[in-house]
Amino acid sequence: MNNKFVVWGTGYRTKKLVDIIGLDHIKVFIDNNITKQQIGYEGIKVISFEDYKREYRNYGIIVCPIYDEDEIVSQLESEEIYHYLLLSMNPSEIQGYGIKDYVQRAYEKIDRGCRNIIIGDNLFTYLLYEKAHRVLNDNQIGICSDNLQNEKQFKAISKMLGCNLIAREDIQPTDRVLLAIKDREYYTYNYENIYDMSKEIPDYYNDKILSLKDTHLGETCFVVATGPSLLTDDLLKLKANGVYSFGVNRIFNIDAEYWKPNCYVFIDKKGIEDYSNEIENYQIETKCLNADTKNIFKDDGCNYFMHVAVHDHYDLQNAFSENVESVVYGGGTVVYAAIQIAVYMGFKKIYLLGVDCNYEKNSNDNYFFKTEKPDILNHDVRRMFDNFEIAKKYADEKDIKIYNATRGGMLEVFERVDFDTLFK
Q: Smallest Cα–Cα separation from 90: which of 12, 8, 9, 196?
């Protein structure tokens, strides 16, 4: 198997990928930045897309950028290049969240006493196949895709990598079937899910979090985000009425003398790294943070470190965690994680405040506070709404009420209520 890839991108996501697969799997990088082409990245050559077409076309591509993903895919397919893989289609761990030996953990599921079929069409599938094929022959290991829409892409990359392909109709009841892609409801094979093993990985389990479970059974809370509609007067009402509140991300920009949340939630790894000092000095009784950042902070008793699993691609329907002690699912917005934590703590009525969901790129006004630099992030509002729909479905099934008390904004998934009527 040809295990060298060309990696598109040299940003933060690429850095995390390199930490997982190592430089041995990388032939060159693609980046349109001329300066990076001149100096290279991690000691490896950086080329243009034109260079790739001329000199490296026989190598499969891993596309790392998430916000430019559609544009890159269109560019590749316009050149009839189908041997590419999207980093966003992989388990959270392959994207750099969680343990680094995830492929090894999945490999331990292989049964040498029968034929093993890996169902998948992502990088994780090929990394696992590569590892297994070192000790198993073609009669013992193969891969199969269940995604007819990507059949051309699947066959192109599999042929290039020299994989043993198994047709869906040839899978037998005696085969060991390992699902390396996000579970889909229509799937009919008797399989074992290796895409999300969060609940069975001891490294992720944090028994300290169990102390939060059902501590506010049947109560009401607010999840306060950082949208521009957020008013200090509204927060003073929450404080005056003793309402339990969750605050997220840069909510610490509000003077704690006026108001501060009971529980603070920040799950974005890079964001936590960027604002670690502010988070460290934020005096909150409960802080729920990404477990990947626990080495940054002192163990002061208020920190609850949670494994965060992210599913970045549109086609990957997210999950809603009932086992926060093992996993919290990211959903394009920290508010989705805060809702999972609130439900875990037993709240039955959850109000959202400051969840505007209307972002303007390069604006200084996307938050209740003025930013010194324009907001250059590509906020994926579509993905936020998709995951809020999942939260609503779960809440409806469990007789939990989620209301949107935000003043204006774009979020219409949850029933709206007028904040001014809540404390009369």
A: 196
